Amino acid sequence: MSKRKSAETKDDPPVKKLTNSGHWSQGLYAAVSDTSLHLYSDDEMVVIKDKYPKARYHYLVLPKTKIANLNALTKEHIPLLTRMYERAKIITKDSTVKTFRYGYHAVPSMGLLHLHAISQDFDSPSLKTKKHWNSFTTEYFVDSHRLLDMLSNNGKVDDMTHHSKRLSEDLKCHVCRVSLKNIPTLKAHISKCFKDC
Known about the structure:
With 197 residues, the protein is α+β, with helices and mostly antiparallel strands. The protein has one domain (20-167): 2-Layer Sandwich (HIT family, subunit A), CATH 3.30.428. It has five helices and six strands.
């Protein structure tokens, strides 16, 4: 995400500034502060387009409260996460692609918890590697409802670090589960196999 900082407006509460000298992993904090990137903003959250989308439609819903990752979540976060999911559904409802998934990476590379809303066409030049693909089509991608169930039942999120091994799994179509040898072959297959409803 952009490392640009912009002045905060009166309407937006302050968000923790970038740390580690603006390290790329902290870029989402800058995105929360940069109103030019916002598709939607309220007192609790902002919605932006992913800077390197992995599908035709790929949005990030970011809380304005500092939540580092899934491990920092408690039952008290359920109302916020529910509203983030509801906002993601609203943002995606008029998209030309109708099939979306809404969820979180088990071990995200970016600081600041964020919900992905991603269309299932995976039609994007930014989708280039096995890691990109597997981060959205394996158990590494934790659906929003599953996360909310964990919090509701356990008061915390289960340890997800073991899901990092999912990033190196063989490429498989997310529709028919056939194995494919590389990303170009996968993309060609998806263009025929994915039938949006």
